[in-house]
Design brief:
Largest interface: A-B, 31 and 27 residues
Strand content of chain A: 15-25%
Strand order of the largest sheet of chain A: 7-8-6-9-10-12-11
Order of helices and strands of chain B: HHHHHHEEEHHEEHEHEHHEE
Largest sheet of chain B: 7 strands, mixed
Oligomer: heterodimer
Structural class of chain B: alpha+beta
Distance between the termini of chain A: 51 Å
Order of helices and strands of chain A: EHHEHEHEHEHHHHHEHHEEHHEHEHEE
Number of helices of chain A: 16
């Protein structure tokens, strides 16, 4: 990675990068901040990107950083000449590899610093990169995040916008951090998942809420048909996440969702499902009775076997999520464990509140849709 | 709609093989109104018109009037239910049907009409409406609140990005439910629904749009503040024209009135004309919001408890 791209509206920062510009190792380019998206789209190879936060509102800054750190392609550094970031360490949690405060900018950015930043990025991805996440024969996708560099390992979300007040909304318990360090992510590609191997997945428990009265009135056949439609609805709505209905019994089931170990984009669609319960009842199930569902989203480890051949699987995580769904979860509710929530887009956190602990795991509940 | 020569020929043969001239004329009048076959063919009243000639002329006139799909719909109904106490079999009807399906139409058994297969073709008239047709439509009006301030406050590309996303949502939700977006004017638009379930479909689309905007504002919007929209639904008569500017009707005026006068940002207002035929579960999501001149209006908005 020898290309350094700086996004700033402040011409004076060219001087701060003069040493990098003179270096034979790196090529240096400057762009205006409003050119960010266009330039990123045109970059065909990995680069070290420096983004100047000066003049951004908290919201714009969050968005820009989220956009920059969304994928593993580029290393990201931050220019903060006005010391606007109260806690620069948060930047590293969000996936940044360098922070240029006023002192550094004044004394100038040295090529050695750039080299260290690039090296930090490469180390993180060498251990935690996509290849490993997708699993090779040697490691079977069991790259432990515990081995990875700080800043790319146990963090709230690589795409987490800096400045969103995660700490006020939730804190990650030491037990969760420990579990996250031991992840063996399945990777996002089912093609790399092998039978009889253990992986960490996102697990979604879903159950159609039928009270005893409806169970009494409706025939078994009707309930079976309804459960089938419910399952098809979820499969259709979660298709973008490659979710698989893995175990299903009566009106409840477990979806396995491929997991990269760092992001939980499916939470957005779970929220959407909760908002759309009436639409599902009318459009998919053709009901005139109000029938909703409950959801529980967790991270968990299990040996993978194809659906229908799961009878012999022994997995604490699978037991946990079924017990959570059957014993803890109330009708119409959606709970998520702290790890899944932590790794989801932090803008969703405002919709959740701490709900309690179940089997030593902290749970957050989505506020009810009234 | 252009009717290919092969399809006309097939239809002509089907009529000639299955119906006498008198019945053909009766059916043609069902579709075309006052129809004089002798005058159309030039045969004097005193001379019987050969079956083949009658069929050819009727098919020609029906195709020219733009009523071909309505006529085939009528044949399908007659084959299924009979006509004036008699049952009929039309030997070429299945092939005609197959060709129409191939051309991008499906038969809607709810409305007993051919409509466009939205997976394959979408025109603003569903492929069946003719200019000047007056029909009952359910209209969905969407407007962006505070458009002028947004345009002043943000660079054009950010505003355009947000509006383009909104337009995409409108199109997806509306067309996914067999509605059509009739107009988009930069800061809002109008969509229409026509089939038998049009009120429920329009409401479902509106609800989904409100839900999508909620998540868009939370997660995707390029603006630093929420994009706020007003949606209104009303059902009523409207005269269809190919250009939106030429469409007329009370319903067009009324839906704009409802949106402007009875709709708060981030919400949907439904007129009583729509509310009355909504599915019970949909109606339960609405609350009365205003009553004027004997009409009631109902509101939907997302309500999420603030603290559990």
């Amino acid at each position: 990675m020898t290309r350094v791209v700086v996004f700033t509206d402040d011409e004076s920062y060219r001087e701060s990068f003069a040493a990098v510009e003179r270096s034979r190792t790196y090529s240096l380019e400057f762009y205006r901040k409003d050119e960010l998206r266009g330039v990123l789209r045109s970059l065909s190879e990995p680069a070290l990107l420096y983004y100047d936060l000066d003049g951004d509102s908290d919201h714009s800054r969050d968005r820009a950083l989220r956009y920059l750190t969304r994928g593993p392609e580029h290393a990201v550094g931050v220019i903060d000449g006005a010391e606007a970031v109260p806690d620069p360490a948060e930047l590293f949690h969000a996936g940044a590899v360098d922070y240029l405060g006023p002192n550094v900018l004044e004394s100038g950015v040295h090529p050695k610093r750039v080299k260290r930043a690039v090296s930090l990025f490469e180390q993180a991805y060498a251990r935690n990169g996509d290849d490993e996440l997708h699993g090779s024969e040697e490691n079977n996708g069991h790259g432990s995040l515990a081995d990875a560099d700080v800043g790319r390992s146990v963090n709230p979300s690589d795409s987490a916008p800096v400045g969103v007040q995660l700490a006020e909304r939730m804190t990650l318990s030491p037990a969760a951090a420990e579990r996250m360090a031991a992840y063996r992510p399945s990777g996002l590609d089912w093609g790399a998942v092998r039978s009889s191997q253990e992986y960490t997945f996102l697990m979604l428990y879903a159950e159609l809420d039928l009270d005893n009265e409806l169970r009494r009135i409706w025939s078994t056949r009707r309930i079976e048909r309804l459960a089938g439609s419910f399952r098809s609805y979820l499969e259709s709505e979660l298709a973008g996440h490659n979710a698989r209905a893995w175990m299903w019994s009566d009106t409840a089931g477990l979806f396995l969702i491929p997991f990269d170990g760092r992001h939980c984009p499916v939470l957005r669609d779970c929220v959407r499902l909760m908002l759309s319960q009436t639409l599902m009842a009318v459009e998919w199930l053709g009901l005139s009775h109000s029938v909703g569902f409950r959801l529980a989203l967790t991270t968990g480890d299990t040996v993978y076997e194809d659906s229908g051949q799961t009878g012999d699987i022994i997995s604490d995580s699978v037991n946990f999520v079924f017990h959570l769904g059957k014993r803890y979860l109330k009708p119409g509710r959606f709970v998520v464990d702290e790890e899944a929530l932590w790794q989801a887009d932090p803008h969703l956190h405002a919709l959740f509140s701490f709900d309690g602990r179940y089997d030593q795991r902290e749970l957050y509940r989505m506020h009810r849709v009234l | 709609m252009q009717i290919r020569a092969r399809l006309r020929k097939l239809c002509t043969e089907t009529l000639a093989q299955s119906l006498d001239v008198h019945t053909m004329v009766v059916l043609a009048r069902r579709v075309l109104g006052d129809y004089d076959l002798h005058q159309r063919t030039g045969f004097p009243e005193s001379i019987p018109i050969p079956t083949q000639d009658a069929a050819r002329q009727i098919v020609h006139d029906i195709a020219a009037s733009g009523s071909f799909l309505s006529f085939i719909s009528l044949l399908i109904q007659i084959q299924e239910n009979g006509f004036i106490g008699r049952s009929y079999r039309f030997p070429g009807l299945q092939e005609i049907y197959d060709q129409l399906v191939k051309a991008g139409y499906i038969f809607d058994y709810d409305t007993l009409r051919f409509v466009e297969d939205v997976e394959r073709r979408k025109t603003r008239n569903w492929g069946v409406l003719q200019p000047g047709d007056t029909r009952s439509f359910t209209l969905l009006r969407l407007d962006i609140a505070g458009n002028s301030q947004l345009v002043r406050r943000y660079p054009a590309d950010r505003v355009e990005g947000a509006y383009a996303a909104l337009r995409r949502m409108l199109r997806e939700e509306v067309e996914g439910r067999n509605g059509r977006v009739w107009s988009w004017q930069g800061d809002g638009g109008l969509a229409a629904f026509i089939d038998a379930e049009r009120n429920n479909r329009a409401f479902a689309a509106s609800m989904e749009i409100i839900n999508s905007i909620f998540l868009f504002n939370l997660l995707d919007s390029p603006l630093d503040e929420p994009l706020r929209v007003r949606l209104a639904l009303h059902s009523g008569l409207c005269e269809y024209n190919d250009r939106f500017e030429d469409m007329t009707g009370e319903a067009l005026h009324a839906v704009s009135e409802i949106e402007a006068n009875y709709t708060e940002p981030d919400s949907l207002t439904v007129s009583d004309a729509v509310y009355g035929s909504l599915d019970r579960l949909f109606a339960a999501r609405l609350r009365p919001v205003a009553e004027r001149n004997g009409h009631r209006y109902y509101q939907y908005r997302i309500c999420i408890e603030e603290t559990p």
